[in-house]
Sequence to fold (400 residues):
Amino acid sequence: MLIPYSTDAPIYHYPIATVTLIVINVIVFFGVSVGVSEVSPQVAFELEPAPDWREELLLQYGQGLRPWQWITNMFMHANIVHLVGNMIFLWSFGLVLEGKMGWLLFLTVYVGMGCFQSFLLQTSLFFLDGASLGASGAIFSLMALVVIFAPLNCYETVLWIMIRPLFFETPILVFCGFYLAMNLFFFALSGASFGTEALHLVGFFVGIPMGLVLLFRGCVDCEGFDIVSHYTDKKGTESIIGVRQRKVREAKRDSRELAALPKIDQAQLRVNLSGQIDQAIQEGNVDLAVALQSKIASNNLGATWKEPQLMSVIQHYMKTKEYAKAERFLERHIELFDDHRFPLQMRLIKIWLHAERPRHALTYMRGLNLAFLSDPEKRDLRKLAEYAQSQIQSGVLEAQ
Fold:
């Protein structure tokens, strides 16, 4: 058995959660688990259940969904060999992962993957009788994360040959590949029956998507030496993942710096910007006025155009024949204000007809409520509708 005890992977956080989990597992074993040895490590079917109340702490099958067991079974072990083996690998994988993730994220991911795996098992084996216990399913999920985050790093390992220890370095990818291949071999040898190896493999394949999600979202700083960067031949901080993680760190830093700035009186800021908009319009700099209004909107200051401001912008763009710009401000004015609604609607229709969009114009005209229009206004609207029809009949191809 290859036993890892140290690593050359960079460690940025102390293994607080890892050590705490090991201590809890040991306490639970000597305080609770002793006496459940008739249940074999990890899984058992058609065996007598554990005595008294402790059977409720195992992951039971055929008894319905029992959510508390999704957690408790991870801390139950059948015997001292089962416990020691799991804790060795929890230490080796936890040292690397918590060293990169910090205790809170590591603990959340470990418990989350263990619970999800237990939920899958209890659901898929709903009609079978039996029980399973042990942390090795969640630990194999951690193994998948180690393969993704640090495949090029090494473990210091010891191999016992008879009574003589042999010490050597093993690349993490080789170490994890060895145990994955061993479980696949025994799983196939058993005729693909559901047992310990199957549960290990379920844990490993639960860990793969979790590791990739954490990697691509920049939750883990692998410094570009992750498995994705390795196999795309882009290393270090210039790798795809490295660049993405750097952007995430910069965004978090910018967010912290922004949060540290003194709070601005939003009401006063709205007044100041509105005054600057009026001044820009008076000076004929309508583009600046539009930019200032966009700044108000993007900062969620709760202010919009004043009617005179918006009318001035529309008149400017109509005068300079910038109809595409005028169009969206006409629509905005019609949406916000009742004043001059029909004249502005007519102007908007004329812009569409000028741009050879007769079908769009006709659709808009059909949506107008004629009950609110005077007879002269109805005649003007009818003339525009006839002009739109003539454009369509002449074969105008409308481009959106």
Observations:
- The beta strands are 2-7, 42-44, 59-61, 130-133, 154-161, 164-171.
- Residues 80-101 form the longest helix (22 residues).
